[in-house]
Amino acid sequence: MLANPFPKKEGVFTLATRHKSAVKRHRQSVDRAARNQAIRSRVRNEVRELRDALAKKEVGDAETQLAAVIRTIGKAVTKGVLHRNAASRHVARLSRQLHSLKKAAS
């Protein structure tokens, strides 16, 4: 008897079909999902740090963090994790909040 070429692994989603192409596509989709989740998480973390700085009214920190957030959001767009219009909307809203904070501080 031949050994199963696609053995089940512990903790891995099992496929309904066992075709080589289906197994490969599933493996690729799992890898992409993990990569996209990491990128989305990085964007959310940086946006949260920026919003915390805005809430504490720390203009200097907020300016440097806004630059980092814009860079991170741009990378997420390049990799296809965020739509470019959604990214533009996020950047515009964060920039507007920083601008209003600077205006109030001066």
Notes on the structure:
The protein has about 110 residues and is mainly α. The chain has a single domain, classed as Ribosomal protein S20 (Methane Monooxygenase Hydroxylase, Chain G, domain 1, Up-down Bundle). It has helices spanning about 20-55, 60-80, 85-105. The chain is elongated and about 75 Å long. The relative contact order is 0.10. The model has no long low-confidence stretch (mean pLDDT about 90).
Percentage beta strand: under 5%
Order of helices and strands: HHH
Spans of at least 5 consecutive residues with low confidence: none
The average pLDDT is 90
Structural class: mainly alpha
The top-level CATH class is: Mainly Alpha
The separation of the N and C termini measures 80 Å
β-strand number: 0
Task: Name its key features.
Methane Monooxygenase Hydroxylase, Chain G, domain 1, single chain, 106 residues, 3 helices
Q: Topology, pairings included?
A:
Layout: H1 20-55, H2 59-78, H3 84-105
Helix pairs in contact: 1-2, 2-3
Task: Summarize the entry for a quick read.
The protein has 106 residues and is mostly helical. The chain is built from three helices and no strands. It has a single domain (20-105), classed as Methane Monooxygenase Hydroxylase, Chain G, domain 1.
